[in-house]
Prior knowledge:
This protein is of the alpha+beta class. It has three domains: 16-99, no CATH class; 134-239, Butyryl-CoA Dehydrogenase, subunit A, domain 2 (Beta Barrel), CATH 2.40.110; 259-397, Butyryl-CoA Dehydrogenase, subunit A, domain 3. It has twelve helices and eight strands. α6 (242-260) runs parallel beside α10. The longest helix is centred in the last third of the chain and has 30 residues, at 290-319. The model is unreliable at 1-8 and 260-266 (pLDDT under 50).
Amino acid sequence: MATQIEPATQxxxxxxxxxxxxxxxxxxxxxxKGQSNALAGVDGPTNETPAQxxxxxxxxxxxxxxxxxxKEYGGGGLTKAQAKIIDQxxxxxxxxxxxxxxxxxxxxxxxxxxxxxxxxxxxIPPICRGEIRWCQGYSEPNAGSDLxxxxxxxxxxxxxxxxxxxxxxxxxxxxxxxxxxxxRTDKSDKHKGISFMLIDMDTPxxxxxxxxxxxxxxxxxxxxxxxxxxxxxxxxxEEGQGWTVGKRLLQHERTNIxxxxxxxxxxxxxxxxxxxxxxxxxxDGELADAVLRDKIADFEIRWNSFLLTARRAMEESxxxxxxxxxxxxxxxLGTKLSQERSELLIEIRGLQGLGxxxxxxxxxxxxAVRAWLFGKATTIYGGSTEIQNNIIAKRVLxxxxxx
Length: 403
């Protein structure tokens, strides 16, 4: 028998849905309809249009960009059901969530768990309002897959640390206001000698050098720290707890990279609808190419099945107290599926899917080619597929090293 919804509960949800609809009517600029949130993953330069600024400020003031985060820190303080209604109504209106970036994806949830009250009060509200850009200081030239091998050192100077070292693949580092980083505070212990701290990117001694990728963009950077002073109050958790805090943050990152988070909202139109613009159709309006039709149907079934599984896994993890090692499963599968989708888009568009520049290609077509090339990195960053396989084997399946 289907579960009956209590009338009061349904009435409350209907009233909230009407509130969201009215908010959209009052605040969402029509010229932004159909746009996506460019800040969903990596915070970029501050080149907002007046309409984009208006929309971000309106959503941030309500806390609806982070709807389930605590209200006392600038979040919406809403239930999961209310957050779902916001997603549904935004989607109907062609509106995007303008609050994103690494502060939302990774750092904010981690700070809510491990930060002290002063740190939460200082850092969470501007994240909820979309007023600050964060970057991640994790990987180093000799500490990628073996992240715990990091050597950037923070020397205790009494009331502050003095940080020296280098990070690489710092996404959005050239635009970021602040960096959450794991650094070494004790050289005698590989894991227990790591601490998690926050570094202002405009501090003297911080130098950022963008790295140009095969896609033609430069979202990744090398970041150098030379005698950078970091106040003691910027230490998150206890000294030596950085490996624990850092791993928790990675679970949030992998969940989002997988498609269980922001990536799912960036997928946009179905492949079938796109294909009908580029490929011949029959009298019934369906694609004439039966092989391509089967490929698209097979992918859409697997992708939507994955999204449902990812949502269920995330809800189960949250109910158990937060993200878990299942994020490695989601990251491995989700990134592979997103790469497969990019390949299919190239096939669907034919010659129009291979353009790099020129008037003969639309912005969407050119963007898709760059996204296809950039997507090659998704199975590497955030922990490579090989790293995820090790985590799955040991922490999910309980296998021993010799197995």
